[in-house]
Amino acid sequence: MYKQTSGYGVKGIDLTIKDFDEGSRKVAMYLSKFDLMDSDADIIRRGAFSKSITERGPNSMSNRKIAFLRYHNWEKPIGKFLELAEDDLGLYAVAKLSTSTDGMDALADYKDGIIREHSIGFRYIQDKIKYVDMGEDSYFEVTEVQLYEGSAVTFGANEFTNTVEVAKAEQKVDLALKIHDEINLIGKALASGNGTDERLYSLEMKLKFLNARLFELAKMEPFDIKHSVTIEPTEKPTFDWNAVVSGIR
């Protein structure tokens, strides 16, 4: 099967940030994960980024190094990568945030827990993709890509889009609690007032989005949860002295 390889692609992951130090402005993260099928039916193997790291990584002589961006926007560099390497889990990175306006906003977002996801911008290489036919579990094995940048992205923007498709009552409750927690997180970030007007506006828009999803979830028809029939315990009847007294009268 042929896979379209022209143009620029992005892939994101939601992994816990390994480390963040506000004083040094350094953040350690994973930009991609190996051996995991993603929504494009791709499985990226270890070694896929090694050539790009050698040619345009932090220690290369290139003038066009792999960039550290926000939202894959080349007009929003937020710092630079100090380390890029592959380990058993995935593409590991250490970056230092700049003191620019966008870098300061990103610093505040890392500190407040707003940034929890990272993504890569890359291009496929045609002869480095192999289609593995496994029926319903078929996938594309990717052994090399051209890596251009890694981006910090605001958490959760897409994961709550399809709340109306929740199928089980248990999932509905869990999702409502998750949205509630993230609303509280953004509320605290807004209350601190840190960052530029652009950052605060972005947080307000995200808050409106989450509130809309929570309202949408609340309007859903309640689920009919059927429980097994319970048998009430049989109580031993007690002697009714009132009935006896009434009979005597």
Q: What's the quick description here?
A:
The chain is an alpha+beta fold and 249 residues long. It is 30% helix and 29% strand.
Key terms for this structure?
eight-stranded mixed beta sheet, globular, about 30% helix, about 250 residues, alpha+beta, 2 domains, three-stranded mixed beta sheet
Task: Describe it.
The protein has 249 residues and is of the alpha+beta class. The protein has two domains: 146 residues, no CATH class; 57 residues. Helix content is 30%, strand content 29%. It is built from five helices and eleven strands, in the order ββββαβββαββββααα. It has an eight-stranded mixed β-sheet with strand order 1-8-11-5-6-7-3-2, with helices on one face. The chain has a three-stranded mixed β-sheet with strand order 4-10-9, with no helix packed on it. α3 packs antiparallel against α4. The termini are far apart. About 2% of the residues have low confidence.
Secondary-structure map:
Blueprint: E1 9-13, E2 19-21, E3 26-33, E4 42-44, H1 50-56, E5 67-70, E6 73-86, E7 90-97, H2 101-112, E8 115-124, E9 129-132, E10 139-142, E11 145-154, H3 169-192, H4 197-219, H5 241-248
Parallel strand pairs: 4-10, 5-11
Antiparallel strand pairs: 1-8, 2-3, 3-7, 5-6, 6-7, 8-11, 9-10
In the residues, how many domains can be counted? 2
- Compute the number of strand runs: 11
With helices defined by DSSP (H or I, 4 residues minimum), what is the helix count?
Answer: 5
The portion of residues assigned to helices is 25-40%
What is the radius of gyration computed over CA atoms, rounded to a whole number of angstroms?
27 Å
Largest sheet: 8 strands, mixed
Q: Indicate the mean pLDDT.
A: 82
> Which strand order spans the largest sheet, edge to edge or round the barrel?
1-8-11-5-6-7-3-2
| Dominant shape | globular
Distance between the termini: 96 Å
Our estimate of the beta-strand percent is 25-35%
Q: In terms of quaternary structure, what is this?
A: single chain
Low-confidence stretches: 227-231
SSE succession: EEEEHEEEHEEEEHHH
Helix-strand makeup class: alpha+beta
